[in-house]
Each structure stands twice: as structure tokens, then as C-alpha cells.
């Protein structure tokens, strides 16, 4: 949730404590002096026919009373229209600085409603001007900066939003250090951290967003009682964020914690538990524990059926069919999908997705004609929905392209990926997906020998994904390895060696030095140095390849023999050319190389590294 839900009630608390211009006026004494009528003392006079003189009120007291009345009218306003009317009346009596809190309150209200972001921004700016002149940080100032960040995020001004939110974060840090009550600071700090996560996600900086989400959960853990429902939701949100970057191992404990909390608080038949189990199924799929995944999916389906949540149930059934496909239970999956497709509307997106899953099962059974028919029908549906749901359609095109790739129809696969890329390029918040699709296109072009065409796509993918998942994610390594392969085929061994060095460094961190793909990157690096004629370095890296394969034992005997053969070949070349070889140091990592990362959708793999 990106709105500061508690801010309006919190504003009233601040207004009562902090506003000298409001609260001091409301509590000002009202003691006019009244002089008694001297004629009242006449004993026989039973009725005073004189009209009493009104109390004499000074101009200052009159203004105080007027401001107090206007402030009370504003505080009692409930609807946006009532608040705007009361604020308009206040503008006559209050200066801009005195209107700061009222501007903040209206801005928060408008931002929460989400109907007029430009008007919300105008009030946020007025509040900012009122509070930004003070040298001392304050809670209202931090709240105003958070509001500026939230409104700019809603207007897709992500860089502006990030600047305001980072400033709000610094102000809140200073307030904590100065001893301001944590009960006042924490709600605003949580809103700031959550908004930072939203903005960074929209900018494609998902790894950084994870850190902000972890801080959100820490704040909730300090605020709410153990095993509260809020903590259950916080754990699930963090698990979903890890799933988005394909870090299923980190997602698992948070997902299990959310399930445990919701089961204790709400019972085994709650909708929240169903959502937890669906997510847990996805996590187990990512960990390739498909039996466990299917088990969680079945349990989730039971709950959804009990609550008559038919739309969610239908998607859960499709997920179950995909899990059956992963387990090799193709006939069972096809039977389930045929039953599901009859429950969908003819031109619906759901039907298209069901047909894609059916095509996947048929493709695995090598029933390619039936597979193509399913894909053609689904493409007909998706083509009509490009403008309605561009992200979902782009994801579907990417998945369909993989099936055509499996059937060795590479041109069709590339064409579909280019259609997906055209949709994603128009959506700045989808740059991580854009980079992922670009990486797939580059891989397929490289695979089909179109090396020069592949390089721009691979380089673009690296640029787009630079900030999305972090420079040490394993997907980054695969893109660099593919770039190295492309440069080597273009007879640019020095550029190739640089790319392979980056790939090796990343994979050693993310996958470990003995992972098969890390060993492959090291092998490629050895070959690149061999092409450069730097045999001493080529031999050094080839020995690392041998040491790594030896750690695998009997399961890698064939790979070890091949690595030893290549080592002897390099040593032979080194002996023949050592007299003329110019000593060469290992190539430095390029200063401005584009970093990249893995894709956010599991169905678009980057782990198909091209061997040299």
C-alpha cells in the first residue's frame, strides 16, 4: 500500500500539540470587563428598560476568535469538498506559514483518494514551502516530504519522488537521534520505506527495493504484537518481492512465516492462508520441488472453492496443470486444461493463458501440430488485448516464443519477442522485463549465427538490467558470457576476455566456484587468452577448470578428461610460442561495462549460456 493511511488522524494529534497558530488561539482567554448598570440599585424599580451594552472586544481578540472558529470548522470537515471550503475561508485569516498543517492534511486526503494528483501536489508544495524554511527538522516536515514522494510516484515522476523520499528518510533519522517519540516517528518511517520500495521497483531497482521492504518488516515487528495479522502480511509481501527477483531460497522462510501467522490468527480455511499457499507453491516450483508445490496448490484450491472465489480458483487450477507439466504428467495436465478451457470466455485473456499451458504439454509430448493450433488461437486473442493489458500480453508472447524455440522455429520466436519488446519499451516501470526480453532476443540471434545483430540486444539488456537486480546476480553473468561468445566469434578476443572475466567473477559470487556454469565461464576465459596468444594466463585458468571439475568426482569424469586435453594443448602451444610471446597481464574489468540481471519471469530463462 502506498498511501499513508494513518496520517490524517495523526495530523490531528500534531495540530493539537504543535500548532501555536491554531491551538494557542483556540485556548486564548476571553474575559471582557463589564461595568454594572448604576440604576439597578433603585429599590422600587422592578424593570430596567435600558438595553445592556455589549462587551467591548479588542481587534486582536476578535481576530483570535475568528481564527479559532475557522480552525474548528476545518477540523470538523469530513469530505474533501468540506475541507476545501473550510480551507478557502481560512486563507483570508491565516498566512501561508500558518496554513502549513492544513495544506498537509488536505494533500494527504487528496493523495489517499487518488482522484486529483495535480491538486494534491499543489497542496503538498504549499505545505513544503511552509515547513522548509525552518532550520530545525520536524515531524510535519517529514510527513510533507513523504507526501511529495507519494504524489510524484503517482504521477510517474520517479526521480523526483526518490529525491523527496530520501530527504524524508534523513529528516526522520535526525528526529530519532534528537529523541522524538518512536511512536510518532515509526508510522511515517514505515510509509517512507514502503514508498521507497515502490519507487525503486518502478525504476527497475528491485534489489535495492528489497532492502526497504526488509526495513518495513522490521518496523512492523517493533510496532505490532508477535504473530499479528500485520506481520503476516509483511512477511508475505517480502516473500513476493524475493520471488520477483527469482530468489526463491530467500523467499521460502518469509512465506512459511506468513502461512504460520495467518493459520494461527485466522484458521486453516481463511482466504489469506489460501494466498499464502499459492505463493508457497510458486516458491517450491522455483526450487524445483514440484511435488511440494502441487500439494500446496491443492490445499489452496480447497479453500478458494469453499469461499466460492471462482476466478482465483481457475488460476490456481491452471497453476496446478503447469506443475503437472513440470512433473512430466502431460496427459493428466492436458485433461485438466481441457476441463478448464470450457469454463472460460471465448476471447478472454484467461482462455489464451490456458491454451498456452495446453500447448506446453502438447509440445512436451511432441504433438507439434496440436501445439501450433493452440498457440495460433491464443495469439489471435492476445493480439486484441495489446492495448488493454500490455504487460500481460508481453509476458504471454515471451512464453509462446519459448515453445516455438523448442520446435526450432527460431524466426517466429524472435518475431514474438520483438512484439513483446515493442510493448514493454512504452512502459518505463517495466524496464526489467524489457531487458529480459532483449537478452532473449540477443541469445536467439547468437544461436542462429546472427552475431552482429545479437550484440546490440545483449548490450541493451545489460544496460536495462543494470539497476534492476544488482551487479552480482547470476543472470548478469549469463549475459556477459553471451557477450564474450559474440565478441570471440567476431574475432575480438580482447573484448571477449573482458566479458568472460566479468561473467566468471559474478558467477563465482552468485553460484559458487564449482558450479558448472562458473566452470564454463572460466573455460571460455582460458580460450579467449589462448586466442590472444597469452598462453601463460590461458594455462592458469585452464588449471582452475580442471581443479573445479575434480571436485565433482565421478559424475564429471568426461568433462575432466576434456579439460585435461585442452590443458595439454595449451601447454604445447605455449612451448612452441614462448620465445615470441609478449608477457601479458590479466585484462582489467571494463570501467563502464553495462551490468545486467536475471528476468523477473521464471518462464524467460537467461541460463542458456552459449558455449564457445
TrEMBL record:
InterPro entries: TPR-like_helical_dom_sf, TPR_rpt
Keyword terms: TPR repeat
Keyword ATP-binding: no
TPR repeat ranges, renumbered to this chain: 394-427
Polar residues: compositionally biased ranges: 590-601
Pfam families: TPR_10, TPR_12, TPR_8
SUPFAM superfamilies: TPR-like
Region described as Disordered: 571-612
Name the record gives this protein: MalT-like TPR region domain-containing protein
Lineage of the organism: Eukaryota, Viridiplantae, Streptophyta, Embryophyta, Tracheophyta
